[in-house]
User: Fold these one by one.
Assistant:
Number 1:
Amino acid sequence: MFHRSFDKDMNQDSHTKPPPRPDCRRTDDVCVSTWNINSINAHMPALSEYLRQNSPDILMLQEIKTETDGFPFLELAAAGYNAAIAGQKSYNGVAILAKEKIEVVRDKLPDAPDGGDQARFIESFCPALRSRFISVYVPNGQPPANDPESSDRLEYKLAWMDALAAYAAKLANQDTPFVIGGDFNVIEYDGDVYDPAEFKNSAFTVSSVRERFRAFYYTGLTDALRRFAPTGAYSYWDYRGGAFEKNNGILLDHLFLSPVWADRLVSAVVDDGFRGVPKSSDHAPVSCRLSSL
DNA sequence: ATGCCGCACCACGTGCGA
C-alpha cells in the first residue's frame, strides 16, 4: 500500500515545480561585494581565498595602493576575474573585479574637488549583468597629526561627498540599474561604532558629514546591509589594541542599490571571518545576494 | 598625552589611516 500511495503522490507532483532551494544555494543569484583591501599586493593571499570561497560576481575594492603597473592582473585572471582599476601610488586607488566582462564608464567622480586627482572612484558597466557597478573611497577627513586644528581635509571630504550626492541624483534619473559600493568613512548612527564618545565631533560623525551621506542615498538608494545586519554590525576594526578580538569595530562599508536591485535583494552580510585571518586588511568584506535581472 | 598596528616609500624615518 505504501508504495502505491507513494507512486500516486509522485504522479500528482510531476507537473509542479520542485521545491525552492535555500537562498544561499540559488546559483542564478548575483553576488556583489565590496572590500577595503588596504593594499591589494600586501593582502593578495586573503583576497584569493575570498574569491575562492565566496566567488562573488562583482567585487568593489578600495585602497588598492598601487598604480596599474603594480596591479596583480595575472593572479586575478588565474582566479577567473577581470579587473577595472583607477590606481594611485601608495595611497587610495579603487578597482572592480568581475567574472564577466566589464567596461570602464569613468574613472573620476564628476565635479570632484581637485579634479579627482585622488583615485577614489571608478564606474563600470557589465553587459552580462545589465548593470553599472561603482566603487568609491570617500576621503577620511581627519586632520593630520602634525596639524590637528586644520580643516582642509574635512572640507575636501565635504566637497567630495557633495559631488557624490549630485552624481547619484543624476544616476537616479537614468534607466540603468546600478550598485555603489565602498568605504564611505561615515559613522551614520552612534550604534555603528563601539564607542560613540571616542568619535564624537570627528570627521566620521559630524552632522555636516552625516547630512551629506544621507543626501547621497536619499536619492532613492537602499543600503543592502541595513536590511539584514543587526545594530552593532561592523566592517572595520583597528589593527591596534586587539580591536578585532574585543569587537571594537565601526561600520564604514556599504552597498547601495538602485531601486531595481533593491527589489531583488535576497540577503546581505559582513564577511567578518576575513578580518580574523593572519595578514588581513583592517576592513572585512560586505556582500549581498541579488536575484538576477 | 602618547602609542598602540600596518601599509608604502625619495625607506632604518615619515605620512597616512579611522
Number 2:
Amino acid sequence: MGGSQGVTGAGYALVDGNNFFVSCERVFRPSLSGRPVVVLSNNDGCVVSRSNEAKAVGIPMGAPWHKVRDIVERNGVIGLSANFELYGDMSARLMRVLEGFAPRSEVYSVDECFLDWSSLPLAEAESAARAMRSQVLRLLGLPCGVGVAPTKTLAKLANATAKKHPDFTRAGVCVLMALPGRERESLLRQFAAGDVWGIGRRSAPVLAGHGLRTAADVRDASRERLRALGGVTLVRTADELAGIDCLASGDEAPAPRQSVLCSRSFGTPAEDADTLASAVAGFASRAAETARAEGMLAGGLIVFADTNRFREELPQHRLSVSVAFDEPGDDTRAFVSAATTAVREAFRPGHAYRRAGVMLYGLTPSAGRQLALFGDTERAARSAALMRALDAVNRVPGGPGLRVAAEMGREKSAGRSTRRTPRSTTNWDEIPVAKA
DNA sequence: TCTGGGGTCCTAGGACCC
DNA sequence: TCTGGGGTCCTAGGACCC
C-alpha cells in the first residue's frame, strides 16, 4: 500500500471506531448513550472498552472488574459481558463501508483500518474524511475518528489527536499536513512519547530517563542512541515520526499468519486432569476449525495451562508442552488427541489451573500438502472428507454443533458471561424487535 | 469470589559447524 | 599458562499491538 512518495498526496488515513465495543452495544440499546458503560473481557474479568462517561469517572482501561466495584456503585456504571459475535459482525460492516473510500485498505484490527490516500490531494483530505465519518455514522450508527498523515505512525498520532485534542474532537478529524507548520510542531512537542504507536509502557520510562519525553524528542534523537535504547524498532518509529514511510505494506498479499491460538480462562479452576483435558480438547477443536477455514495445515501444536499467578499462596505451575506432528495436518481428531495426551502427562495433581490453551504453529497452506514418507493417501482423503462434513454441519446457524467426544464435560470449566447482550446481527433468535 | 484473548516481531544466547 | 573466530540456525523470552 501507499508508497514512500506519500509527499505527493494525503498519505494514509487511519479510521478507528470510538470506544468500539461500547459503541456497538449502544447501536442496539440507545438507552445506554450518555451513561457510563463498560464492556468486560471473557469471564467478566477486565474492562476492555469504556464509554467517555466511564473514562470520566475514573475507570482505567484493563482494570479488573472486581477492583473497580466502588467506582461502579458510586456512579451507576453499567458493565456488559463481551459479545464478540456482535462486534465481529459490526466490524465487518464497518470495513465494507470504509473500503468504498480508498483504492486500497488494510484492516489493522477489529476497529481500525488504514486507507491508502496517497493519490488523494492533500487539499481534499479534510472534506473526504468528514464525509466518510458521517457516512459511517449514518449507515452503522458508529462514531469514529480519522487521522491523516504521510506515515502510519503519524496517522495514528493524528487519529489520537482527532479523538482527544479539544481543537479536533468536534470534527473527529485531524489532517496533520494541512495544519500550519508551527501548529503541527507544537502537536508533536505535546504528544507524550509513551503514546506513540510502537513505544510501550516498558520503554517509555527508559526513554524519559534519557530525556526523550515527547514524540518530537524521539523524532529528533540520534539514530545511534535510539538503536542502543530500543533496537531497530525504535529507529523505525523515529523515522516514521520524521515522515519517512517505513511501514508501507506493499502490493503483495498480506503475509499469511504463522500461528493460531485458542485459549480461555475458566470460570472455575480445573483441579483434575479430566476437566483440564476436556477444556483443552475444545481449544484444539476450535483451533483446527480456524486452520481449516483459512486453508492452513499445522506442523505442530503447543498446549499450555497456567495456575492463577495472583494467588501466590497457592502452588503455581505453568504447564507447556510442544508436540511436533509427523506430517502437517488439519484433522480435529489428531489435534485433540495430541493435545489431551500431552496435557494429561504434564498435569500436576494438587494444582488449580485457571487458564489453558492450544497454539498451532508451523502453518503451511493446505494446497501444497506434502505427505510424510510412507504417508497414507487414502487415510488422508478420508480425513479431509470427514472434516469437510464436520465443518458443514457446524456452519448451520443454530444447528446442533458437532463435537468430538473428548470435549464432553468442558462446560465444567466454562467462563462466566452473565451480562451478555443479544447477538442482534448474527442470530435469528436474538434479532432486535421493534415495537411501533 | 472476582485479574482477557489473539497476534507479530526482535533480540540474546546457546548449539553447532568449519 | 595457554584455551580461535566467524557464521548460521534455533529457541525462549520480551516488548509491543489491539
Number 3:
Amino acid sequence: MGGKGTKTKEKIRQQARRLFAEKGFQAVTMSDICERTGLSRGGLYRYYSGTGQIFSEILVEEYAAANKMEGESSARTVLEHLLETLRTEIMDKERSLSLAIYEYASLGNETFFAEIHAGAKKRWMHLLEYGMKTGEFKPVDAGQMSELILYYYQGLRMWSRVIPFEKQTAEYYVSTIKQMLLEE
Amino acid sequence: MGGKGTKTKEKIRQQARRLFAEKGFQAVTMSDICERTGLSRGGLYRYYSGTGQIFSEILVEEYAAANKMEGESSARTVLEHLLETLRTEIMDKERSLSLAIYEYASLGNETFFAEIHAGAKKRWMHLLEYGMKTGEFKPVDAGQMSELILYYYQGLRMWSRVIPFEKQTAEYYVSTIKQMLLEE
DNA sequence: TCAAAAAGCGACATCAGTGTCTTTTTATTA
DNA sequence: TAATAAAAAGACACTGATGTCGCTTTTTGA
C-alpha cells in the first residue's frame, strides 16, 4: 500500500510540523512549506489544498500515537510510564505544537479539541480511580486531580516555548504529581 | 492632563483589547480595529502605527494593574485575596488575552515575557516563604509550588477559551492550592 | 467670528500570500 | 523506445491587508 505520492506527503507533513512548532499556526504559509520541502507552489497544492488540511492531518497522526499506550500493569507502573513520557515531551520544546494547536482551535475548531481534552481527562480519571481502588494511590478527588495534571502540563508546554527554561521545571512537574498520588 | 486625543486612544485600546481576546494577536488587523472603533484607516494610523504598538500598550496597562496589589496583611489573607482575583479572572474567559500574549511573545518578544513570568514567580515565592515562616502555610518547596500555581493557571486560561467550561474548574484551581498550603 | 490646528476621511500604490492553469519534466510500462 | 500518465514547475490573476498622503471637517481660542 501507499503509492508513490505517500513519500512526498510524508515529507511535507514532517517539514510542516517543524514550521508549526516554530511559528505557530497562522504564521506558517504555503510558501514557507514550499521553501522547506523544496517543492513549488503548484507541486505542493497537488497534495494539500491549504495549511489547515496539513495541520489537521498532523494532529490526527499525533493523537493516534498518544492513544496507543495503556497495558495491563499496575496503576503505579502506568503512572510512572506516563509521567516519564510527559517529562521527555516537556524537555524538547522545539517539537511542541501547543501554540499552533491553540491558534487552530480558536479559529473555529473548538469541538475537535474539546473531544481530545475530554478524552484525556477521562483516561486520567480512570487511572486515578483504579489506582485508588487498588490502594496504590492516596485518596484524591479524581476530577480535580485530572484537571490539575492536564492544565499544569498545558501551561508548562506553552510557556516553555517562550521563556528561558529552568532546569528543574520538568522534574517539578513529575514530582509534584507523584507527591500527590504516592506515599513516600 | 491628557489632551483631546487621549479619549480616542483609550477607546481604541479598549476595542482592540476585545478583539485580541476574541481572535488572538495575529488574526486582528488594523481594519478590524477601524471597524470596531468607527474610525477610518487614516484616522486610526494617526494614533497607532500598527497592531503591535497597540497590543504592547495594552499589556503595559494590564501588568501595571496586576502589580499594584500587596498590602500588610497575614500571608493567609493575601493568599485568599490573590486566589479570589484569579478565580474571577478565570471565570470571564471573554476577557482572556492568553492566546494573544503567547502569539505575540513567540513573535520575537520573548524577553519581555520572561521578565513578567520571573516577576510573578518571585512574588509567589516570597509569599510562600513568608507564610511558611509565620507557620500559616504547610511546609512546601516554594519554587516547585510557585511553578505549579503559575503553570496550572496558564493552562487553565488557555484551554478555557476553547473548550466547554466545566463549572467547577475555577473552584478546583482555588481549592487545590488551598489544600496544598493550608491545614483543613 | 474666523483663522489655525487637530482630528478624521478615503483613495492610492504596494506587498505578500492565495489558488489555478498550462507547460515541462520525469517515471512507467506496453 | 515511444506513448502515456504522474509529478513538478512557475506564471497569472486575485485578494486582503498595509501604510501614506492630500483633502475635508471639526474644534479651539484669540
Number 4:
Amino acid sequence: MPPIRRIAHLDMDAFFASVELLRYPQLKGLPVVIGGGRRKVDDALLADHPERQPRFIPVADFPLLRDYVGRGVITTATYAARQFGVGSAMGMMKAAKLCPQAIVLPVDFDEVRRFSRLFKTTIADIAPLVEDRGVDEVYIDFTDVPGGHREGGRVLARLIQRAVLEKTGLTCSIGIAPNKLIAKMASEFNKPNGISVLYEADVPTRIWPLHVRKINGIGPKAGEKLAALNIHTIGELAAQDPDFLIKRFGKSTGAWMLEAAWGRDNRPVVTESEPVSMSRETTFDRDLHAVRDRAELGAIFTALCDKLGADLQRKGYVAKTIGIKLRYDDFRIATRDQTVESYTSDGPTIRKIAGLCLKRVPLSQRLRLLGVRASLLARQGEEPPPASKNASDMPVDQVNKWPIAINSIADKASNDVSGQAAPDQLF
DNA sequence: TCTGGGGTCCTAGGACCC
DNA sequence: TCTGGGGTCCTAGGACCC
C-alpha cells in the first residue's frame, strides 16, 4: 500500500502589496491597493524627495485611490483595505468608492518576480517537489520529505514559513492535506501567516460546510448553475446523484464535480512543464476605432508583435500558430488564429501573420483591447518537421492569397464607415 | 465611472485522410 | 456509388485561474 500523501499549498499573503510594504514600511497597517496605472508613481514620489529614501517619504505624500483616474483593476489589497470590501480583480473606480482614502501604488513586476523567485528557491531548498502555480502560489509534495509527516506536515510547514520570512521578509499561509484540491482550500483557513492541517476524515466537517465556489475549478458560471439547482454547499454537491450532475454538466465536468465534493483528487505535484502559448495584450486608455485611430492602433499592434517576438526569443521558443484577440467596447471578445508552415519568433513575421488574422475579424466597432498570441510552440532548434500538405501549411507570403473571408468581412466593415478606407488596408 | 494581463484546458465543428 | 466510421489537425469561443 502506498504511503498516504501529504500535499501542501502555499499562498503568499497579499503578495504584491506586501512587496511594496517592504519598500515603504511607513504604510504598514494602512489600506493600500496595488494595481491600475502604468504611471511611474515611485519616480514622481522620489523626485519630490530627492534627498530621502523611500521609507522616509511621508504617508501624506502618497497618491490616494480617490484621485485615481483611468482604467484598471486591483491586483492586491492589504488586509486593512479588505476591511472596506476592496479586493483582487475589482475595478479601480468601484474600489475608489468603497475606500477612497486607500493609498494606490502601481505594480512593480520586476520586484514581484524577484521576490517570487526568492521564495520559491527557498522552499525548493527544503522540499524539492515544488509546483509553480503563478507568481505567488505553489504546491509542495511533503510525502517523501524527511519529517514531512510530523504533526501531519505542520512541523515542515512551520520550517518553510520561517525560512521564507527570513529570506524575503514576507509571510505566507500553508494548507496541508491528502491532495492538492483540499490543500488549496485549507491554505485559506488561517490567513494571514497561518497553517492548517487536514486529513481525509476532516472532509465532512471542514470542507462540506463551504460554498461550492471554494472548489478550485468551480467559477462564476458553474456556481450560478449549481445555485439554480439549489446546490450551495460542497456537502450538498456531494449528496447529488452522479447521473444528475452528468446530465447537467457533461460527462467529465459532472463526474469531476462529485469527486471534488468528496475531496478526492489524485493529481500529482508537477515540477516541470512546457509552455503552451505566450501572449501580449493591452487595454487602451480610451476605446479606439480601426479606421479613425488607425495610426495609433497600428503602432500598438507592431509594438505588441515585437514584444511577443522578443519574449519568444528570450525564452528560446518559436511558434507555428499566431493569433489575435480583440475586445470590443461592449466587452465581447473575438479571436482569430493562423497556423503557418514554418516556426518563427521574428517580430515582423509575427506582425505579418497577425495582420492577416486582423483582416478576418469585424473591425467596425470600437476596440478596448488588442492582443497577439503565439501557440504551437517548439523549443528553438527542436522544431518538429512539417507533417502534411494543406492550405494552412502554406508559406506566409502565399497565405496573403487566403481564398475567403478577407474580402467579405473587409467589405462589411468598410460599409459601416462609409467614405473611409477599409480597415483591412490599415494593418 | 464598471471590468488588467498572463495563462490553461475543454468543447465543438469542419476539413481531410484512411 | 453510397454509407460510415475513426483519427488528426485547425479554428473559435468560453470557463476558469492567479
